[in-house]
Amino acid sequence: MKTTILIADGQKETLNTLRLYLEREGYSVLEAQNGADTLELVYLHRIDIAVLNISLPGMNGRYLVRKLRDVANVPILLISSSGDTNELHTALRLGADDLIMTPVNANDLIARIRGHLHRARQFSDAKSTEPGIYRFENIELDTDRCEVATGGIPLDLTPTEYKLLRHFMENPGRIFNTHQLYEVGWNDTRFVDDEIIEGCVSRIREKLGDTDGSILRSVPESGYSLGPVSS
Fold first, then answer.
1. How far is Cα of residue 214 from the mean position of the Cα atoms in its chain?
2. Judging by DSSP bridges, how do beta strands 28-32 and 4-8 pair with one another?
3. DSSP string spanning 31-61?
4. Which of 52, 98, 141, 227 is an S-S bond match for 77, by CB 3.0 to 4.6 Å?
5. Mean pLDDT along residues 95-99
């Protein structure tokens, strides 16, 4: 079965160009030109990854990302030409996995799509190949099932969120900088973006109920650690 990619952009010319690149790589492509049509396609079809312009007509990027994340646990790549950092930060915190600035480089886009699809498949395959349980405070991570729970309540993590949290739980008290975390979560250090790391960490904290950042801690000018930094 072909991998299906949903692309959404308000400009038909942009959609045609992206479709050409993606179909040339062997992907099946679904298109939408506004937020409402994007959501309808997600409800009607099985998609493997979504590539969305954050400024789609009729729906702001924050709302669209939140709605998509409610119904589809797939990688979400945002395309933006906006200088509105608040909008971008919020979208990343709500569940977007990556950010690409315009003008879009086709080779860059394809590389990122391949990387996210590879991680999603690894996440699925790992369910039967990596036994082990890690615990930290009230958090339990089961590597056999690729499941995480807090206080016995299961959490719905994306593959990237799971990989980062697992890495932290395997190394409590150790500081990881954004470069190291990007390599863990994205298997690539060519496109390191601090905002993407910040957004992913914020989502993990929110799902853990870590409202004050006392579990997944920010270490000024260094990075992040799970719990107090080991001496």
1. 23
2. parallel
3. EESSHHHHHHHHHHS--SEEEEETT-TTS-H
4. 98
5. 81
Q: What is the pLDDT of residue 129?
A: 44
Euclidean distance between CA atoms 216 and 171, whole angstroms = 12
pTM score of the predicted model: 0.63
Q: Two tokens at 198?
A: 């910040």
For 106, half-sphere exposure in the C-beta direction (CA atoms, 13 angstrom radius) is: 12
Whether the link from the prior residue into 103 is cis, omega within 30° of 0, is yes
**What phi and psi, each to the nearest 5 degrees, are found at residue 34?**
-150, 170
How far apart (Å, rounded) are the C-alpha atoms in residues 104 and 79?
Answer: 8
Domains and CATH numbers, the chain: 4-124 (3.40.50.2300), 130-226 (1.10.10.10)
Residue type, 58: G
What residues are paired with 225 via a beta bridge?
A: 217
Q: Read off the tokens for 191.
A: 């496109």
Residue 115 CB contacts under 8 Å (≥ 6 apart), including other chains: 186, 187, 188
Residue 172 preceded by cis peptide, ω within 30: no
